[in-house]
Amino acid sequence: MKVKVKLTFFKSLRFRIMVLLVIIGIVPCLLTERVIVRSYESRAVELRKINVKNQCDILGNQLMEEGYLEHQQSETINKELSLVSTIYNGRILIINESGRIVKDTYGIDEGKYVLSEEVIKCFEGEDTSSYDKKNSYIEQTIPLTDPKSKHIEGVMLVSTSTGEIVDSIAFLEHRGSLLMLAICLLVVVLGFVLSKVLVKPFARVGKAIEELTDGYLDEEISVPDYTETQMISSVFNKMLKRMKVLDDSRQEFVANVSHELKTPMTSIKVLADSLAGQENVPVELYQEFMQDIAVEIDRENQIITDLLSLVKMDKKASELNVEKVNINEMMENILKRLKPIADKKNVELVLESYRPIVAEIDEVKMSLALTNLVENGIKYNIQDGWVHVTLNADHKYFYVSVADSGIGIPQESLDRIFERFYRVDKSHSREIGGTGLGLAITRNAIVMHRGAIKVKSEEHKGTTFSVRIPLNYIA
């Protein structure tokens, strides 16, 4: 359990914020410390070179004035050479024009010859200097020029130690390390505290959501500390409202199903009890009761059939049996099947087709959906009314419009007519045999085909359903 808690902490936003704060706090300090130390080293070496060169330039002028390259007996010059080499903890070599060492402050290489690249370059008039960081010394060459002819007659090769610079750098690095350790500890502590403070609003969001998991309350969560928490709160509140609507819809659906299935059964039981409670029932009455029972059974069967159709519509669209279908012929067949129903109410049934249309659809499901629309237009129409069906298409969709001269739909009911078992006028719907599932089935079938359905209606002025379906089905 402890291991799991630790792993959860390492995956948490708080840990990542803490790491980010630590990185932001420590990395710049480390870089700054490195830059300062390196800058100090570079500056110290450069100053050492300048100071040594200035000293050697003065000393070189004195050497040339006293002809030291030919005669090295000058006590003054020798003392000054020894003093400079001692001050800078270095070594000075005086080299004549032939490359021979005429003076070595260490006294070990006098009389030897030097043919190094630096010395040759110096004789050619190019001052050279180099810094050997590994061995901690600076090597410089200073030309010895004749004051009159300006001819380079010798070279002063100076090697000076940078030990004190190295010691200073080591001291700075040691102090810097101590300072960095203190900064790291401070940053880690501050990162731990700040990360806890920063994620606190998210914890409040989680707690608020957790408090609502036991049931849907009318309250809404609100954590406006950050834009993100405000956005999460807003999205959750929208989801909560949607879940409330779905829960209410589910409860209403269950209640409606129970009621719709129970009503025919109650009627059948009443009729059956009436027959069972009477003796010597006339054949005519017996036949009348049996006909009523048959009607109730048919009604029960119709409800169950529609429910099964709806369940099938709720399945994945991958179960669609899609094929190329002639939409014009399909609509003609639908109207042909419904014409007897229209003739009974003397309703004019008209199909207007503007062009030949072939589309990729599941013919059974789409035929059922469009049949429901046309049949509703007939059933909820007035005597001697009309139902006009128009069929059209463009390069991407085909369009079906079903308009009628019927009783219309109240404005407040338009948003709910596609809900299962919803009826605008329940008593009138039962009179004409409606189950309240037809439009729900229609909408599901259209949505499965990636289509859309819209309705416009006005009471006592008719209703128009507009359907749009893609010509080519894309799974």
Automatic annotation (TrEMBL):
Residues 256-473 form the Histidine kinase domain. GO terms for molecular function: kinase activity. Its main location: membrane. The chain crosses the membrane at residues 178-199. Its EC number is 2.7.13.3. Residues 196-248 form the HAMP domain. This is histidine kinase. It comes from Blautia hansenii (Ruminococcus hansenii).
